[in-house]
Write a structure and sequence with these properties.
Strand 5 (153-159) and strand 6 form a beta hairpin. The protein has 205 residues and is α/β, with parallel strands linked by helices. The protein has helices spanning 2-13, 28-32, 43-54, 81-85, 90-101, 120-123, 136-149, 193-204; strands at 35-39, 59-63, 106-110, 128-132, 153-159, 162-168, 180-183. The protein has 8 helices and 7 strands. The radius of gyration is 18 Å and the shape is globular. The protein starts with a helix and ends with a helix.
Length: 205
């Protein structure tokens, strides 16, 4: 039993060491020390939090005030039937699942409304904030908080069969915005680099 526990601990300490060194540009020590807030723990928030944990982001804050429902289970990888049956808060259910995925990640769940219950002091502690919200007012308020705190903000959303992703670096002298819209069915088509280049040129005009 002791040998099994030792092997498990060694695996946790060496998270990704067999994969990440293959990426010459990857700085795992920076990722491990990063502090990232994910606002909104629905379907998109599940995917973002899961991927951040798998990449070894050291400190995650999850913000949402909603509870898990059975209807969430078809699109939220971090929730279980037990979570829905007990009507757990989404942040607690997601935090528990993330610790199972990667015990090295420090996860702080916050049952809170981003519009009224999260202050600038906490936002300023973050290296980046990722918004996964479906509420226009909440996205607007998160934008204002990040702008005032000078923290980079990535905003993602899904509406119908379209997805949108944009980022704002409020630390820079100018605001950089990148928007990508595409029908979800197009994401499954063969990659066409020429179409992508045309899309980028049209966007820059």
């Amino acid at each position: 039993m002791e040998t099994a526990n030792t092997s498990l601990e060694e695996a946790h300490m060496g998270w990704g060491e067999d994969i990440f060194p293959r990426l010459s540009w990857w700085k795992q020590h920076k990722v491990s020390g990063a502090r990232v807030m994910v606002v909104g723990c629905g379907a998109l928030g599940n995917e973002v939090a899961k991927n951040l944990a798998l990449f070894g982001v050291g400190h995650l804050w999850l913000v949402d005030f909603d509870r898990v429902e059975y209807s969430n289970l078809t699109r939220s990888v971090l929730f279980t039937q037990e979570d829905a049956g007990e009507a757990c808060h989404k942040v607690h259910a997601a935090a528990h699942a993330i610790k199972r995925l990667n015990p090295n990640v420090e996860v702080t769940p916050l049952v809170a409304d981003i519009c009224t219950e999260v202050g600038l002091g906490l936002i300023r502690r973050m290296d980046a904030v990722v918004g996964c919200l479906d509420n226009r007012k909440a996205r607007y308020m998160l934008n204002r908080l990040c702008m005032r705190a000078g923290v980079p903000w990535v905003d993602g959303g899904i509406k119908g069969m379209e997805q949108e992703l944009r980022g704002k670096d409020f630390k820079g002298k100018h605001e950089q915005v990148r928007r990508r819209k595409a029908r979800l069915e197009e994401l499954f088509r063969p990659f066409d680099s020429r179409m992508l280049r045309r899309s980028l040129r049209n966007e820059e005009k």
